[in-house]
Specification:
The complex is a heterodimer of chains A (about 230) and B (about 425).
Chain A (H helix, E strand, L loop, with lengths): L5 E12 L6 E12 L3 E5 L6 H8 L7 E6 L2 E2 L4 H11 E4 L11 H11 L6 H9 L15 H13 L5 E5 L7 H18 L2 E5 L3 H4 L4 E6 L2 E6 L1
Parallel strand pairs in A: 3-8, 3-9, 6-7, 7-8
Antiparallel strand pairs in A: 1-2, 1-4, 4-5, 9-10
Helix pairs in contact in A: 3-5
Chain B lengths: L3 H8 L1 H37 L5 E5 L14 E2 L1 H4 L1 H4 L4 E14 L2 E8 L3 H7 L7 E2 L14 H10 L30 H14 L4 E5 H7 L6 E4 L2 E9 L7 E4 H8 L6 E2 L1 E6 L5 H8 L4 E5 L2 H9 L1 H32 L1 H9 L4 H37 L9 H27 L3 H6 L2
Parallel strand pairs in B: 4-9, 6-8
Antiparallel strand pairs in B: 1-11, 1-12, 2-10, 3-4, 3-11, 5-8, 6-9, 7-8
Helix pairs in contact in B: 1-14, 2-11, 2-12, 2-14, 2-15, 6-7, 6-9, 12-14, 12-15, 14-15
The chains are: A alpha/beta (about 230), B alpha+beta (about 425).
């Protein structure tokens, strides 16, 4: 636990793509801190840097400058150390679910656990039940509805009990009914298990489920509301 | 838990099958061509080693490698006197006249051997006839003499062999072989007369081995044309003896040795028990006669045809390189198509080592399937070759199967290296944001 109580922080984050005149500065000295057990939504127009922020916080992409700290500890620069932190501390939920199509639901979760040196156990089955997808455990993604696929993706993100769940437009490809169900699950997760969640979304309705909504524009935090 | 490389392979069945077949063809070429080249050669070596003798003696001038020898070589006298000259080490010495005749579509080793049972037994490795009889046992001439006896008595009766050791004996004059009243120096008539004599004395008779009989569809009693003569097949012996074709030595000497029946090609020497063959060979070697161990023949073949092995091995290497280039392209394509999956794994924290192992695993699984297919195809090819060309031998040995497996494993790893490296370089953020 960090001294300031933040489980994840981005300090003065700068990230640009391209070079010279083609360079696009996506993050421009952005600061964001998320407390343990907090559910934060990040909103903003397309191209404002939301997904890049998530990738930088999730240690997928290194920032050009600035610091990402987990529990107050700055993340290492090397890919090896960053991958290790991703394995231990972070769970991702993506807009396109990003399940491995060649594996069944249970095997998608199992391979994620194997990366973390863990094995399938009874808790995973409970998680499938809790998410309402126990009946599709043996099915491949192509044999599931999109709602089921997204809930399986959440199971995969949670199975190793990450400190933080980073969700990138998790309801973006869902119909309103499935979106609402998923958001309810995320809220329950946050309320019941004090799971820290950072969710990128375009939808004000989805964002409204969070404890705090952060609005971005042009690579910076515009304002935050609780 | 699901195995990701296996799942990926099963997901793309056609591509996987084609890849495995590609490797299989390479493996099959390696095993079959090596098996064919070495099998056919070692089958010859096995046949020479089947002879019940330890040494071969031949003219020293022929050098150290006598794998392709045939025709006139060592005077009989230099062979048959060995038991008498070296009674402490030699039990028996059998002269043999070697020649080649085309039968069943390819050249066959013809062995001219004395009609004495002991000589047949020694040169056929003790094999007994499975059909028919030995040569020269159907003598229809009034005097009852066999072709060999008649040739010997007609051509050598008044001419004791006084040729110094190491020199070729002088040919007998044609007139001695002509019937009374025939025009002198009429070689054609003379040959006709001699051939008629040989024919009625069991001279133009052959014993063939079972493999040649199968390959040529030959049977006992059949007359075949070879070496400008008609021969009657009178017996079939199990395969594995020195030659595929046996005939009376005197006839072979006369017909293929320009009429000189005092010179054979070489001699096989049976040593007494306990005699060290190397030392015996040294003792029997002199200024004009070379003695080598029968078991050296295999080494001679390897030396003589080593170039062929290198050629075959080179063809195999090319086939395998092509097969594994195919695998590399396949894996590379798969990596390009699967960047999203790789990005997912990396987002979940997969290390580069894990990604590398997945690609390697896929390559090894495809190669293992290719290996199984290749070995299966090799046995099928061997069966096909030996069925359609019964005189060819394809020897598939554990050594070559293990070699093929080793080469396949190395090839699998090598061909996966670049695609695996590319997989570790996948840009996770870019791959995951691609819509």
């Amino acid at each position: 636990m960090s001294e300031n109580g933040y489980i994840i922080e981005g300090r003065d984050l700068v990230k640009a793509y391209g070079t010279g005149r083609a360079q696009v500065r996506v993050l421009r000295g952005l600061n964001l801190a998320v407390a343990r057990g907090e559910f934060v939504s990040v909103m903003g127009p397309s191209g404002c840097g939301k997904s890049t922020l998530l990738h930088v916080l999730g240690l997928i992409t290194p920032a050009d400058s600035g610091v990402v700290a987990l529990d107050g500890e700055p993340a290492p620069d090397g890919e090896g150390g960053r991958a290790a932190l991703r394995r231990e501390r972070i769970g991702f939920v993506f807009q396109r679910f990003n399940l491995l199509n060649v594996l069944s639901a249970i095997d998608n979760v199992a391979i994620s656990l194997r990366l973390r040196g863990q094995k399938l156990d009874g808790n995973v089955r409970h998680l499938f039940e809790w998410m309402g997808v126990a009946h599709v455990m043996r099915r491949r993604p192509a044999e599931m509805s999109i709602g089921e696929q997204q809930r399986v993706a959440v199971v995969r993100a949670l199975a190793h009990r990450p400190a933080i769940v980073l969700a990138d437009e998790p309801t973006g490809n869902l119909d309103s009914e499935n979106a609402e169900a998923l958001l309810a699950l995320l809220v329950n997760l946050n309320r019941q298990f004090a799971q820290t969640i950072v969710m990128i979304t375009h939808s004000p309705a989805a964002a409204a489920h969070a404890d705090r909504v952060v609005t971005m524009r042009d690579g910076r935090i515009l304002h935050a509301t609780s | 838990m699901g195995n990701l490389p296996l799942a990926n392979i099963l997901r793309h069945k056609l591509r996987s099958v084609l890849s495995a077949v590609g490797i299989g063809i390479g493996i099959c070429m390696l095993v079959t061509l090596s098996g064919l080249a070495r099998g056919s050669l070692y089958e010859v070596a096995d046949r020479w080693e089947s002879v019940d003798a330890e040494l071969i003696v031949y003219p020293r001038i022929w050098g150290d490698n006598v794998t392709t020898l045939s025709g006139v070589g060592l005077p009989d006298r230099r062979i048959v006197h060995l038991p008498e000259a070296h009674p402490d080490i030699v039990i028996d010495a059998v002269p043999a006249f070697l020649w080649r005749m085309e039968l069943a579509g390819q050249d066959q080793l013809v062995v001219g051997v004395d009609s004495a049972a002991e000589a047949w037994k020694r040169l056929t490795g003790g094999r007994t006839l499975i059909r028919g009889r030995w040569c020269e046992q159907d003598v229809r001439a009034d005097d009852g003499r066999t072709a060999s006896q008649w040739l010997t008595e007609t051509l050598l009766a008044d001419e004791p062999d006084t040729t110094p050791p190491g020199e070729s004996p002088r040919l007998p004059d044609w007139p001695e072989t002509q019937p009374a009243g025939a025009p002198r120096h009429d070689a054609v008539l003379s040959m006709r007369h001699i051939q008629a004599q040989l024919r009625q004395r069991g001279g133009f008779e052959l014993v063939i081995d079972a493999r040649l009989a199968d390959a040529g569809g030959y049977h006992v009693g059949q007359t075949v044309r070879a070496g400008n003569h008609d021969w009657r097949i009178v017996g079939v012996v199990p395969a594995g003896g020195l030659g595929r074709v046996f005939m009376p030595r005197r006839v072979a000497q006369f017909v293929f040795g320009s009429g000189d029946i005092r010179v054979s090609t070489l001699g096989f020497v049976k040593l007494r028990d306990g005699v060290e063959p190397g030392e015996a060979a040294a003792r029997l070697t002199d200024a004009t006669r070379q003695a080598v161990q029968v078991r050296q023949y295999r080494h001679m073949l390897e030396e003589k045809f080593g170039v062929m092995f290198r050629y075959v091995d080179m063809v195999n290497v090319i086939a395998l390189v092509i097969a594994f280039l195919f695998i590399m392209v396949t894996l590379y394509t798969m990596v390009l198509q699967r960047t999203r999956d790789i990005a997912i794994l990396k987002a979940c924290g997969a290390s580069n080592g894990f990604i590398l192992r997945q690609v390697m695993g896929e390559s090894l699984l495809l190669t293992a399937a290719g290996l199984v297919a290749g070995v299966g195809m090799s046995f099928l090819a061997a069966w096909g070759i030996e069925t359609t060309r019964p005189l060819l031998t394809v020897t598939i040995t554990w050594r070559w199967l293990v070699t093929a497996a080793g080469v396949a494993a190395v090839g699998a790893v090598a061909s996966a290296l670049y695609p695996a490296w590319r997989a570790t370089r996948v840009d996770v953020a870019a791959a995951l944001t691609l819509e």
